TrEMBL record:
Residues 1-247 form the Carbohydrate kinase FGGY N-terminal domain. Its EC number is 2.7.1.30. The lineage of its organism: Eukaryota, Metazoa, Chordata, Craniata, Vertebrata. The gene is Gk_1. PROSITE patterns: FGGY_KINASES_1 (PS00933). Pathway: Polyol metabolism; glycerol degradation via glycerol kinase pathway; sn-glycerol 3-phosphate from glycerol: step 1/1. It catalyses: glycerol + ATP = sn-glycerol 3-phosphate + ADP + H(+). It holds the Pfam family FGGY_C. It is an enzyme of class 2 (transferase). Residues 257-322 form the Carbohydrate kinase FGGY C-terminal domain. Gene3D superfamilies: 3.30.420.40. This is Probable glycerol kinase. One of its GO terms (biological process) is triglyceride metabolic process.
C-alpha cells in the first residue's frame, strides 16, 4: 500500500508461491493457491496498517499486476480451475510450436511479428492454451459446453475477486493481452485470423480494457469471515514488467528500466509508435492509462532464467537450504 501523494510505501506483505515441476521443463502453479495468497496478503497488509494506526478506509483503489503469459482456464459455472496454471517459462509446448511452424510458409517464426510484436515461441499464452485444448479432456469438454474461460493470472484474479461464478468480470488489460500472440497491438483487439490459426475460440477470451479504469469492486473473500477491502474498486491492471516501467516513471520516449527477478527484463518506452527490432527484441504495449487514452509501446529484451535458477538450485538440486545461501556460494 502506497501513499498516493508521496509514493511512500506504507505497508506490505508477501507469500511465496509453490512451483510444481511434473516433468522436466514443465512448470505449474495452483491457481487457487495464487488466489489465496492474494487474500492473505490483503488481510495481513491491512492488519499491519491498523497496527500503525493508518485507517484502511483511506484505501481508494486496488491494482493488479502479474507474471505475464502464465495461462489458466477455469469453469465459469463452478468457479474452479480446470488445470494448474502453466507458468510463462514452461517448455512443454515445444512440440506444439513445431507443429504450428509446419503450417507457416518457410517456417517463419516471425510470421505474426508486425501484428503482435512477438515471434512464435513456447513463451506466449496462445501456444500454452493450444496445448491445454489438445491435451486436457476436461478443458476440451468445458469449451464445447460453453463453460470455459481463458485468462492470464490478472484475469483469473479479477474475475474471482469481483464476483466469480455469480457474475465475475472476465477482462484483461492491453499489456497482458499483448503477450498472448492473439492480440493485434495496432487495432487493440483480438485478431480473428490469429485465433483461427491457433484454433482458439474467441468466446473464451477476456474483454480487453485499458490499464487504468474501474473494472469492478472487491467482494467479500469467501474463505474468510470478512474482506478488509470489500467494496474498494479494482482500477489498475498491468503485466509485471510494464508495471515496473510505470513504477519507475519511464513515461518519456527512450526511457528504460531493467529488473532482476525470476528473469531479467529490459523495457524501453518508444512512445505512441511501435518499433520493430532486427536484433531479437520484441515489441509490446507498455501501457494505456485510460479508456480514451492512447496506447504507448515498448521494446523488450528478455532473459528467461535469472532468479529462477536460485530457486532451482535450492529446491531441485538441494545445493542450498535457502536463497541467501546460494548467494554465499556465488560469492
Amino acid at each position: 500500500v502506497f501513499n498516493a501523494e508521496t509514493a511512500e510505501l506504507l505497508s506490505h506483505h508477501q507469500v511465496e508461491i509453490k512451483q510444481e515441476f511434473p516433468r522436466e521443463g514443465w512448470v505449474e502453479q495452483d491457481p487457487k493457491e495464487i488466489l489465496n495468497s492474494v487474500y492473505e496478503c490483503v488481510e495481513k497488509t491491512c492488519e499491519k496498517m491498523n497496527e500503525l494506526n493508518i485507517n484502511i478506509a483511506n484505501i481508494r483503489a486496488i491494482g493488479v499486476t502479474n507474471q505475464r503469459e502464465t495461462t489458466v482456464v477455469w469453469d465459469k459455472t463452478t468457479g474452479e480451475p480446470l488445470y494448474n496454471a502453466i507458468v510463462w517459462l514452461d517448455l512443454r509446448t515445444q512440440s506444439t510450436v513445431e507443429c504450428l511452424l509446419k503450417r507457416i510458409p518457410g517456417k517463419n517464426k516471425t510470421f505474426s511479428k508486425f501484428k503482435t510484436g512477438l515471434p512464435l515461441s513456447t513463451y506466449f499464452s496462445a501456444v500454452k492454451l493450444r496445448w491445454l485444448l489438445d491435451n486436457v479432456e476436461e478443458i476440451k469438454k468445458a469449451v464445447e459446453d460453453g463453460r470455459a474461460l481463458f485468462g492470464t493470472i490478472d484475469s483469473w484474479l479479477i474475475w474471482v475477486c469481483i464476483c466469480g461464478k455469480n457474475g465475475g468480470i472476465h477482462c484483461t488489460d492491453v499489456t497482458n493481452a499483448s503477450r498472448t500472440m492473439l492480440f493485434n497491438i495496432h487495432s487493440l483487439e483480438w485478431d480473428p485470423d490469429l485465433c483461427k490459426f491457433f484454433d482458439i475460440p474467441m468466446e473464451i477470451l477476456p474483454t480487453v480494457r485499458s490499464s487504468s479504469e474501474i473494472y469492478g469492486v472487491m467482494k467479500i473473500c469467501p474463505s474468510r469471515d470478512s474482506g478488509a477491502l470489500t467494496g474498494v474498486p479494482i482500477s489498475g491492471c498491468l503485466g509485471d514488467q510494464h508495471a515496473a516501467l510505470v513504477g519507475q516513471m519511464c513515461f518519456q520516449d527512450g526511457q528504460a528500466k531493467n529488473t532482476y527477478g525470476t528473469g531479467c527484463f529490459l523495457l524501453c518506452n518508444t512512445g505512441q509508435k511501435s518499433v520493430f527490432s532486427e536484433h531479437g527484441l520484441i515489441t509490446t504495449i507498455a501501457y494505456k492509462m485510460g479508456r480514451d487514452k492512447p496506447a504507448f509501446y515498448a521494446l523488450e529484451g528478455s532473459v528467461a532464467i535469472a532468479g529462477a535458477v536460485v530457486r532451482w538450485l535450492r529446491d531441485n538440486l538441494g545445493i542450498a537450504k535457502s536463497s541467501e545461501e546460494v548467494g554465499e556460494y556465488g560469492a
